[in-house]
Design brief:
The chain is an all-alpha fold. It comes from Cordyceps javanica.
Length: about 250
């Protein structure tokens, strides 16, 4: 029987499968029978013996396949498990409700049940008579409690990750989950190529703007007037006007 399984249906199904394997194994006449048959005055011919054994093994194999099918074994295991569960419901207690020990029907995979387990052997008399078993029991309970705490922490982490998954679900753009990565700047990615195009466009625009600025500056420089020359010419015109004899005669 597989002792690594933890649930009652799995244990019972493994036990039934092991017993079915034993029942379905082919049989053969023993050496003692063969020796007795050979020493008999009227021995049975070997061919008849082989044919009879072959037919018997065939009938046994067919019977096991029909009567102990995997589905039937699973149903039987589930019925046994339901009986255990019914006993637990009828008791309605914890792991320490069984006098002198822990009931076989107690579910040791339940966190609340694990927390209610005693850390020492329930019976002091048996603990004194079997100290090694009592110590092994204490170590097993301590290990079970630690594993239960680790499982609770893992469950909390799983719940947190599920909440994070639900939070980022709207960011998905396809059923495969793609969409977020495409929006990140990665080497040789789509965003990097678009940024390179934008930089080239900005360089071209900046070059055109600089050319317009230079042309405007040149035009303004041509339109500038020398103020000193303007003042000198105006002063000369005023002096000539005042010195004109026709304007200021006698």
């Amino acid at each position: 029987m597989d002792t690594t399984t933890s649930t009652i249906p799995a244990r019972k199904q493994a036990f039934i499968a092991a017993q079915t394997t034993l029942l379905s194994k082919p049989i053969a006449p023993s050496r003692a029978w063969r020796a007795t048959n050979d020493a008999s005055n009227i021995p049975i011919r070997q061919r008849l013996v082989d044919d009879a054994v072959f037919e018997f093994n065939r009938i046994i194999e067919e019977h096991c396949q029909r009567s102990y099918a995997p589905q039937a074994s699973r149903n039987l295991s589930e019925r046994i498990n339901n009986i255990y569960v019914g006993q637990i419901d009828n008791q309605g207690g914890g792991a320490n409700d069984v006098e002198g020990g822990i009931g076989k029907e107690v579910d040791l995979t339940n966190d609340s049940t694990i927390e209610s387990l005693p850390f020492s052997w329930p019976s002091e008399l048996e603990a004194a008579a079997r100290p090694e078993d009592a110590q092994a029991f204490s170590r097993s309970v301590s290990g079970l409690v630690e594993l239960s705490k680790e499982r609770q922490q893992v469950q909390l982490r799983m719940d947190k990750l599920r909440r994070l998954q639900s939070a980022i679900e709207p960011l998905r753009t396809s059923d495969s989950g793609r969409g977020v990565q495409e929006n990140l700047v990665t080497r040789n990615g789509a965003v990097e190529r678009e940024l390179e195009k934008m930089r080239n466009l900005l360089d071209r625009v900046a070059g055109r703007v600089d050319s317009f600025r230079d042309a405007s500056a040149n035009a303004r420089s041509r339109d500038l007037v020398n103020m000193d020359e303007l003042r000198t010419s105006r002063k000369r015109a005023v002096d000539e006007f005042l010195a004109d004899s026709k304007v200021f005669s006698g």
